[in-house]
Amino acid sequence: MRNRFITFAVVLSLFSLTAIGFAEDAEKQETPASQPAANSSTPSAPAHAAILKDAKEFPGLITVYQKGTSLYAELGSGDYSNEYIVLISIARGISQGQLLGGMSWGFGDDWVWQFRKVDDRVHIIRKNVRFKANKGSPESSAVRNAYTDSVLFSLPVMTKGPKGGDLVNLTPVFMSDLPQIGQTLPGFGFASDKSTWGAIKNFKDNLELEVAATYASNGQLSIDSVPDSRGVTIHVHYSISKLPQTGYTPRMADDRVGYFLTVVKDFSKASDRDQFVRYINRWHLEKADSSAKLSPPKQPIVFWIEKTVPFKYRKPIREGVEEWNKAFEAAGYVNAIEVRQQPDDAEWDPEDINYNTFRWITANAGFAMGPSRVNPYTGQILDADIIFDADFLTFWKDEYETFTPQSIAAMTGGSLEPDDEPKTPSQQLLTQGRYGDCQLNEGMSRQFAFGAAALMAAADADGTVSAEMQEKLIMQGLKEVTMHEVGHTLGLRHNFKASKYLNLRDMNSPEKSRDGMVASVMDYIPVNIVPKGWEQGEYFTSTIGPYDVWAIQYGYTPQSGGTTGEVSELQKIAARSGEPALAYATDEDTRGSDPDPDSNRFDLGSDSLEYAKIRSQIVQELLPGMVDRMTKEGDDYTQARRAFNVLLSQHGQSMFFVARYVGGLYTSRSHKGDKDAKPPVTVVDPKLQRDAMAMLEEQVLSEKPYQFSPEMYSYLASSNWMHWGSSTTTRKDFPIHSYVLMWQERVLAQLLSSSTLERLYDAELKVPPDQDTFTTAELIERLTKAVFSEVETLKDGKYTNRQPAISSLRRNLQRSYMKTLSSLAMSRNTAPQDCQTIAYAELSSLKNRIDKLLDSKIKLDSYTQAHLQETTSRIEKVLDARLTLSSP
Predict the structure, then answer these.
(1) CA 642 from chain center: how many Å?
(2) Contact 590/657 with Cβ under 8 angstroms?
(3) What are the CA-CA distances from residue 310 to residues 101, 185, 313 (Å)?
(4) β-pairing, 131-132 with 261-266?
(5) Which residues pair with 121 in a beta bridge?
(6) Alpha carbon distance 391, 362 (integer Å)
(7) Distance between CA atoms of residues 189 and 180, nearest Å
(8) Rg (CA), the chain
(9) Where are the alpha helices (DSSP H) in 310-424?
């Protein structure tokens, strides 16, 4: 027995020694290689030989080796002194959210990495690029103490590599959720055992890595575009390159000209305002002949049309890209932009930083965008891709079968209350996905649908003219969207005042619209459709506008003297901002709570009242016979319902633009001394505000615009399909009452928002007392009179439940308005207290008038009688509650 215990102990000892040996071997894989024993008679193989056995070497920017799912890098002394920009994009997505093939990933500053040797480990550092001070200055020490870089990874040096550099295992870096995609896929986690390398390409100046990254879940979530949600594979592309040293000179930004910005806080900057240094984002463009007035660039900006773009669309896309050469000629360049076609046998990846591509994807997301990647120190654009999703050319979408308050709000600027708006770019990232996102194509499908419906009404019996004109509509719209997205890749932001450049008559005159229908293609431009009797011009602008030329001049005209000497020359260009064609307002000026009625998405012409009047006229012209035009023999009737919704949405959206005049303020970005400059803020003329109110009373608060043929409702059918990728409506019939009320409530919400009331109230002090102004009291009193007009005008008659004294559409509107007025009187928002007291007084007066009507000899129908009784009862409760709340 004793011998057995001794034998078992020996076995345990041997097992322990063996385990220790395995552990030591494993440790050698993760720690610096040990030196060979001094008494070794034969030289041992270098430690890297075993690690890299059967690995494939990829020489280039940084030498890497792939072995299965493992990736090793050999870092030399020069690699530690470099800074690298890391650009992330989605090579293959899942058609959900931001996970779309071709989408750039990462919000905020582009990543700058550095490899830093710390003892026997290598730290991967993400540099803090937002703060700086002059090297060697006291401020630089303060900055160093206040702000730090981020250590993303700490990797052990495994051994020396074949070339004598440090060999590190990069697998934990890239076989992970480095882009934090899991945050956009709740319930999913990165699965390293299910992820593989998609491609590795190494070049002299850049390293391109693609990971087929699989995210796993419990499978409870169903995603239409994924066969099984237990394993969602997204191809993530990493483009790593050294920050270029090109002699590029940053260009200072000016708030009068709309460029995307690179912003650094420089604590060495002497300023009595702030210490931010703002550079515009632009390409490094230099003349080949600096002495020539017009010269080709040393290196043009080259866009490749990807081979995935359908043949029929390549011509308008090419023309849209090349259109910008007109602006660059004004800046002194000939053929600054070149367009090339990607060969079918090309082996390079569109995600490669060395290629700027125009990509065509089928993500079923209906968008277009022009993302660019930027040096976060200087604002130099390094790479850009224009991405079009084919779905935006699909006119008659399922979503048009049912509009919701949310979709209507999205069409009209979002939240109307400033407290509901994100305050900072970071908050906007969380709420909107990406600050400054281009959402042009979310509305372009509706514009194409509206245009197609108009063309069908003007078609010959066989539809020949319609088909020909519809093709023209698409091609012109495609070119216009291309110009817009190219503008983004050149550094330009949106300009939502550009559509005010011409009036609608001039816009349809070939002579007067020669330089563009709008001042800038960076606006969201609706389809130009005219009513009967008008001359029809282009459907979409065919060229860039004067603002575009001016903005490119500011950004790209060669200047001398670096960032300081160029200021005076740039100031001369920017000082033209007072010219009407150069007015500028962008995304943060065009939220629902913003004041300027001239800054809108998808408005057209210099006069919003004229635009709304014409849009309303066109809708009334198109509605008769719409069902027959939209429904071919053998088709179902879903397209008729979608067209009806699109037409009414055009009416509602245009009327919302009119509502923005009430309580509106014109804004200007011009500086002191600019020629023809307007004040920064000007109150909208009171006559125009009253004209706007008159139109709204007729076109929104009245039932007249919503008197449609009763027979038509029987043919506004919803889709009968029920499968993945489809959506169903809650009502098989058309919900006309709720649809009309949604638009009425949206306009009322604009008129009675806290923002509008506060601006009106403040305007009473901003306008001299001897001058006229539109007041909050006048607004509330006028709304009450318009909404409850029957209380004053109702005369005796034969009223029945089928022909009531107050129609159902009007009763709905009155209930909604009464709730809003009651909330105002009860101080349930941040409106001025004087507005609350006016609302209280209006409710009291309204109750007296309703009581008088109910006490009269007029015999009312059941609906009207009950409605008025309920209304006066509710008002009484509100008045009593108000008195209680107001008591000490």
Answers:
(1) 25
(2) no
(3) 17, 32, 6
(4) parallel
(5) 118, 156
(6) 7
(7) 10
(8) 33
(9) 311-322, 325-330, 405-411
- Token pair 């009193």 in the structure block, residue: 781
Mean pLDDT over each residue of the chain, to the nearest integer: 88
Instruction: Read off the pLDDT of residues 307-349 as tens digits, 9 standing for 90 and up.
Output: 989 999 999 999 999 999 999 999 999 999 999 999 999 888 7
DSSP 649-716: HHHHHHHHHHHTTTT-EEE--PPTT-TTPPPSEEEPPHHHHHHHHHHHHHHTSSSGGG---GGGGGG-
Structure tokens at 743: 């638009």
Burial class of residue 781 (count of CB atoms within 10 Å of its CB; 0-12, 13-18, 19+): middle
Q: Which ranges in 523-635 belong to alpha helices (H)?
A: 546-556, 562-565, 567-574, 608-622, 626-630
Instruction: Note the Cα 235 to chain centre separation in Å.
Output: 23
Encode 91-110: b = buried (16+ Cβ within 10 Å), e = exposed: bbbbbbebbbbbbbbbbebb
CA 180 to mean position of chain CA atoms = 20
Q: How far is CA 655 from the centre of its chain?
A: 23
Partners of residue 216 on adjacent β-strands? 189, 231
Which amino acid would we find at residue 531?
A: P
Cα distances from 83 to residues 130, 240, 406, in angstroms, run 15, 10, 45
- Residues 280 and 251 sit within 8 Å (Cβ to Cβ): yes
CA atoms of 93 and 90, how far apart (whole Å): 6
Chain centre to alpha carbon of residue 7? 75
**Residue whose entry in the numeric block shows the structure tokens 């281009």:** 438
Report the sign of the C-alpha dihedral through residues 726, 732, 736, 738, in that order: negative
**Residue type present at position 308:** T
Q: What is the DSSP letter of 282?
A: B
Residues 295, 288 contacting (CB under 8 angstroms)? yes
Return the closest-CA partner of residue 639 out of 621, 627, 623, 651.
Answer: 627
Q: Which of 585, 472, 460, 454 is nearest to 532 (CA)?
A: 454
- On whether the CB atoms of residues 575 and 676 are closer than 8 A, the answer is no
Give the DSSP H or E segment for 14.
helix 2-30
The helix/strand/coil state of 562 is helix
Which H helix or E strand runs over 84? Answer: strand 84-92
The alpha carbon dihedral of 361, 721, 409, 524 has a sign of positive
pLDDT in tens, 517-534: 999 999 999 999 999 999
CA of residue 327 relative to chain centroid, distance = 25
Alpha-carbon dihedral sign for residues 830, 834, 837, 841:
negative
For residue 267, the Cα-to-chain-centroid distance in whole angstroms is 33
Q: What is the DSSP letter of 542?
A: -
Buried b (16+ CB within 10 A) or exposed e, 132-166: bbeeeeebeeebeeeeeeeeebebbbbbbbeeebb
Element (H, E) at 168: strand 166-169
Give the helix/strand (H/E) hosting 116.
strand 111-118
Running DSSP on this structure, what letter comes out for residue 52? Answer: T
Cα 369 to Cα 107, 386, 389, 488: the distances in Å are 15, 6, 9, 8
Q: How far apart are CA 740 and CA 626, in angstroms?
A: 19
3-class secondary structure, 877: helix
Return the structure tokens found at 397. Answer: 């979408």
pLDDT, tens digit (0-9, with 9 covering 90-100), for 769-810: 999 999 999 999 999 999 999 999 999 999 999 999 999 999
**How far apart are alpha carbons 523 and 868 in whole angstroms?**
46
- Residues 6+ positions from 500 with CB-CB distance below 8 Å: 519, 583, 598, 605, 606
What is the residue whose two structure tokens read 């003892």? Answer: 119
754 or 360: which leads in pLDDT: 754
The label of the residue with tokens 């950004």 reads 555
Which element (helix H / strand E) includes 86? Answer: strand 84-92
| Residue 237 near residue 369, CB atoms below 8 Å | no
Among candidate residues 819, 823, 818, 826, the one with its CA nearest the CA of residue 885? 826
Contact 239, 351 (CB under 8 A): yes
